TrEMBL record:
One Pfam match: CRS1_YhbY
Name by which UniProt lists this protein: RNA-binding protein
GO MF annotations in UniProt: RNA binding
Biological classification of the source: Bacteria, Bacillati, Bacillota, Bacilli, Bacillales
Coiled coil: none
Amino acid sequence: MLTGKQKRFLRSKAHHLRPIFQVGKEGVNDNMITTINEALEKRELIKVAVLQNCLEETDDVAAALVEATESELVQVIGHTIVLYKPSVENKTIQLP
């Protein structure tokens, strides 16, 4: 579980990132979860955009992604979700 200070730190790191995944009308599927897990292992911190045509609410998509990838939800802002998961092999982010 992340503390408030750690979430602030991660939000500042994520500010300049662009979303590398988009959730559309298909919603969250197994293939997407696999690729997001791989991206989290490489980058630790990613943004996911929820498109306008997505039938699910952004908060529901965020909850599904957090549960499926076992990551931490840093922030949901508008239609953008920021996820963090410490990498096993490529540890680059040092939390305060």
